[in-house]
């Protein structure tokens, strides 16, 4: 069975105590928001449509999280829900979880709601990758792509007592003995990051010794018990272990330095590794330009709220605003990159 989130989108960190991309638009504000509690359910097209119905999109809106509760897509959806409630942006926002097949089951459900503008869906890198990896009959071309709002960055980590003190140290050892450096990660997205690093380092992707783990926690255990020597993992999954010294972070996978993450970027260190776990917004196809404008207005207001900004800070997300005019080009470029990485893997 194809992986779902958290493998395709890392689960959020626990709260305290408990190719070139197009230009990024900075006029919009970053996302944030406290994750809301509430009933979690799965739904078919009919139940979603009946839950949201009505012409006024600010009266009732459904946000689909294409995975079970607790993963990255679910966290983003519930952060939006809370921000819309707190900001009085939408009178009644519901979140519906539709897990399965790396998000492609939810994507098929959204595509089946053609003409129904009362539903949004959170998407992202993992969903795009799943449509490619599993040859999904439904793709992002079958829905209305509204934009990208935020991203989560991976970090390259090793055990705290590892002999490797820098990314160069790790890469040099890896190049000398590819199979002798077992890697791990929380799922298929992390494997794509490791593959992109392999390409940048001159290592053949299909020769990489990658041990897939079921989420960030299992990947961390593989590092700590010696099963793996290095990992690519979502920063939110790893930050506590990094701060405790049990893991050592060598680089953050990013093009530019990230506020709040005091690590060199892969690009700064000379490795063209930039794949991020971005979050996108989608609506059904066949909706009017007026409805698209309404949805874009709702999204812009949502990501400008203090609640959403707080979620961005709390979950260590980073701003990545790709607007409606740019999003198709962005998705096409990301799809080309992901296809090339799967080809490198021999998939």
TrEMBL record:
Region of interest (Disordered), residue spans? 1-24
* Family annotation (Gene3D superfamilies): Bordetella uptake gene, domain 1, Periplasmic binding protein-like II
Q: Where is the composition biased (Pro residues)?
A: 1-15
| Domain of life according to the entry | Bacteria
Q: Which InterPro entries match?
A: BUG, Bug_dom1, TAT_signal
Known CDD domains for this protein?
A: PBP2_Bug_TTT
Renumbered to this chain, the signal peptide range is none
Which family does the entry's similarity section mention?
Belongs to the UPF0065 (bug) family.
State the protein's name: Tripartite tricarboxylate transporter substrate-binding protein
Instruction: Give the species this sequence originates from.
Output: Brachybacterium kimchii
